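re the bet — no i am not wrong, look at it urself. input seq straight from the record:
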Amino acid sequence: MPRKSRIDAPGALHHIIARGLDRQRIFEDDADRHNFLSRLGKIVKETDTRCYAWALIPNHFHLLLKTGRAPIANVMLRLLTGYAVTYNRRHRRHGHLFQNRYKSILCQEDAYFMELVRYLHLNPLRARIVKSIKALDGYPFSGHSAIMGKCKNKWQDADSILQLYADKVPAARRGYRSFVEKGIEIGRRHDLTGGGLVRSSGGWSSLQAMRRAKVFQKADERILGDGDFVEQVL
C-alpha cells in the first residue's frame, strides 16, 4: 500500500519525530548533539522556519516546527542527510542512520501548541536522562533550558512561548515552568505523537462517547486536530 504524501503549507505546525535505524543510537556524545543542533539552527534560520520546542534522546529526537519559506520536507532532508554523513564519517560506519521515514504530524495550533511544547520538553525527564525538573531547567539538549534562560539558542523561538504567560520575562518563565511541571504526573501522551481520529478525540473512550452521541468527524492519520481542522487542511 503506497504511503500518503506529506501535508504542508506556510505557517503549518509540525511535530516531527525521527528515530535511529532499528532503534540504534543516533547521538553517541555531546559532540554529536552539538553538531546536530548547529545544523538545525543554520537551516531554520536560512529557511525562516520557526522552532518552538525540541529534545534530543540517544536514539531519536523531537522537533516542533512551523513551516517558513521552505517546505518541511526540504528542511528535514538537509538536516538528516547532512547529519548522517558527518555522523558516519566521525564514527567510521556506513549505511543508513535513520529509519526510512521520519514522522511528521501536522497539528492544530490553537488546540495543541502548548501541550506539544510541554510534551516535547519533558522527554529527557521521562527517559531518565535528567532526574528532576530542576535538572531539566539547565539541560542543554532540550529547548526547555532556552525558554528558562539557562542556555542560549538564537534560532529557537522562545519569545512566542513566553508571551503566552506574561508581559515580563521573569513572570512568564515562572508561568511556563509551572505548566511544564504539572505535566510530569500526566506521563506519556500517545495522543500527541500521531494523527488520526482516536488521537484527536483523546482516546478510545472519548471516541466511543462521540459515536454514541452520533457525532462524526473527519480524520486523517497525518493530522492531529478536530474534524473541522482536518477538513480545512485537506
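see?? The first helix runs from residue 30 to 47. told u. also The chain is about 45% helix and 10% strand. so pay up
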